[in-house]
DNA sequence: AGAAAAATGGGGCTTTGGGGCAATAGCGAT
DNA sequence: ATCGCTATTGCCCCAAAGCCCCATTTTTCT
């Protein structure tokens, strides 16, 4: 299917040239001539990747990258620079940019980077979807159930949990059953995996 | 304590200058004027980080980085370049270099990068130590025990495992007990965590 | 206030997990 | 051939977990 790509460069003719090139390779291209303009529309669309110029008035490419990271838009970024320096490229890559190309852009390099970027994005999307689904299930747990959940993945026995929470073992069993039911699992090992996936920590000695 | 740092640069006077600077900051410095020379001694010592020049005869800094990665020497690398270009810096960082500085090196930047590098190295060392300890325990498992281990972390019941392996449930119990004993754990949740840590995969439907 | 949801508990039953003790069998090394 | 390790299994028993129906209380929401 047609992946959507945003091209952000203050030079409109460069944008158009890139758009033409990428259209020719089956991509769906959106053009923005400044970073703020892009930000206005960034949340509306689902992008496969972003081609971003470094040197722009108002807001530089690196600043925009910063903002996108802050706002958790995890679009892979391919930088292109007219007169970029090494420190810029280093920070860009350190912050996760897919590549940092210099103008004039070698067509082959750009296409290759875009390919990587889109693959990366797809991977991220898949992970995120998966993560959200389990998180959503976990959120249906009541506070008490969550508490029991955490004790379970700490390896505690029903008897021990009952003791810690000053309730009967019977009640723990009920909660335990409900936790497993709500999370759609049948065994404890799956509970542990779910907990690890969404970052639910075992109950340490300190807080018990 | 005194961290050891290797400085690799074909220009001996630069090496000496850097050594003097770093000595003054409490580091223990080793000097090499070529990448191959460094490789001869790399395995003998425990380094906190490596300061590496990009442009050197025989073997470039990037090539050396490649080799170190291949050989699993996970020393953090701080690159310094006299006339480095952007593509070099990009690949260096992508492959995990801590930083890519340009000569003349700003003292503050270098010290800062070294600090990061050493912190990173310590973290890696800690993780590695932890990993090796558990891996070592896992290696004491016999083939059969490993097999049962994998079924356990797949969430299978003793009865099911027995059926798959065409043995009695009693035998599975014996193996199961031995696995837990050898891995020094008391609950299944810890087994799952160990398996995840050393990368032991559950048994998929395909291979059963 | 009244209904719905959540937490608590009981009794009873089955299944599963775990430990001890003993025995048999195969296989490689001394 | 004998020793040691591993794998296998039987029997007995107990503890832990899961599941069924049930009831009461507390909290929460409308």
UniProtKB/TrEMBL annotation, chains A, B:
Coiled-coil annotated spans: none
Tell me the keywords, alphabetical order.
DNA-binding, Phosphoprotein, Transcription, Transcription regulation
Superkingdom: Bacteria
* Name of the featured protein: Response regulator transcription factor
What Pfam family does this protein match (any one)?
A: GerE
State if Nucleotide-binding is listed as a keyword: no
Answer yes or no on keyword Transcription regulation: yes
The cross-references to InterPro entries, in alphabetical order and at most eight, read: CheY-like_superfamily, Sig_transdc_resp-reg_receiver, Tscrpt_reg_LuxR_C, WH-like_DNA-bd_sf
GO MF, one term, reads:
DNA binding
Which segments constitute the HTH luxR-type domain? Answer: 134-199
- Domain (Response regulatory) spans 4-118
Any one GO BP annotation for this protein: regulation of DNA-templated transcription
Which residue positions does 4-aspartylphosphate occur at?
53
């Amino acid at each position: 299917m047609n992946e959507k790509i945003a091209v952000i460069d203050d030079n409109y003719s460069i944008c158009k040239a890139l758009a033409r090139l990428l259209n020719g390779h089956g991509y769906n291209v959106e053009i923005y001539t400044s970073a703020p303009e892009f930000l206005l529309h960034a949340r509306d669309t689902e992008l496969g990747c972003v081609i971003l110029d470094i040197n722009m008035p108002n807001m530089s490419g690196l600043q925009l990258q910063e903002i996108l990271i802050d706002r958790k838009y995890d679009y892979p970024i391919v930088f292109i620079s007219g007169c970029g320096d090494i420190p810029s490229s280093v920070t860009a890559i350190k912050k996760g940019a897919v590549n940092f190309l210099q103008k004039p852009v070698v067509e082959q390099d750009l296409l290759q980077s875009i390919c990587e970027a889109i693959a990366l994005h797809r991977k991220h999307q898949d992970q995120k979807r998966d993560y959200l689904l389990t998180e959503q299930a976990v959120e249906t747990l009541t506070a008490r159930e969550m508490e029991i959940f955490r004790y379970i993945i700490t390896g505690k026995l029903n008897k021990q949990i009952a003791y810690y929470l000053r309730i009967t073992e019977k009640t723990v069993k009920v909660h335990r059953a409900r936790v497993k039911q709500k999370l759609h699992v049948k065994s404890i090992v799956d509970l542990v995996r779910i907990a690890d996936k969404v970052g639910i920590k075992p109950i340490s000695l300190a807080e018990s």
